[in-house]
Amino acid sequence: MALKGLKDKVAVITGGAQGLGAGIARRLLEEGAKVCVVDINGDQVDKFVGEVNSPNLIGVQADVSKEEDAEKYMAAALVAWLLSDESSFVTGAVYPVDGGWTA
Ligand SMILES: NC(=O)c1ccc[n+]([C@@H]2O[C@H](COP(=O)([O-])OP(=O)(O)OC[C@H]3O[C@@H](n4cnc5c(N)ncnc54)[C@H](O)[C@@H]3O)[C@@H](O)[C@H]2O)c1
Question: What ligand 1 atom has the least distance to the C-alpha of 23?
């Protein structure tokens, strides 16, 4: 499938440490995207991130059905976004991260 124009874009993939999500993560990484996989299974997150071994991949253990877990992966996704070209048009902005603030 043609997937173009994704270089340095950010993708957050829930249930992304195995199965369909992991396949999508690998494909997006091939296209140069920054990928954040979120999965309830922390061991599988570690395994997948270790196998792929890409600087463009962040893995987070979180249960996406729990609102209180959302800040974990939103913070990781924010880091990926800040490292991407999508953030390059923003200067001097301040974003909340993990209860604190960072620029
Ligand atoms: N595999 C298929 O052919 C197929 C076809 C149609 C639909 N689906 C559906 O697509 C989805 C994914 O299928 P799959 O084969 O990749 O499944 P999978 O079990 O291989 O992967 C699902 C991943 O989601 C994670 N996960 C489950 N609950 C979670 C939660 N609350 N928070 C975060 N992560 C969570 C699991 O730990 C696992 O890593 C399923 O809902 C499945 O029913 C699959």
Answer: 16
- Superfamily of domain covering 10-102: NAD(P)-binding Rossmann-like Domain (3.40.50.720)
Cα of 48 from ligand 1 centre, angstroms: 15
Is the pTM above the cut of 0.70?
yes
Cα separation, 86 vs 67, in Å, equals 26
- 3-class state of residue 101 by DSSP: strand
In the chain, where the domains are located: 10-102
The tens digit of pLDDT for each residue in 17-61 reads: 999 999 999 999 999 998 989 999 999 999 999 999 998 998 999
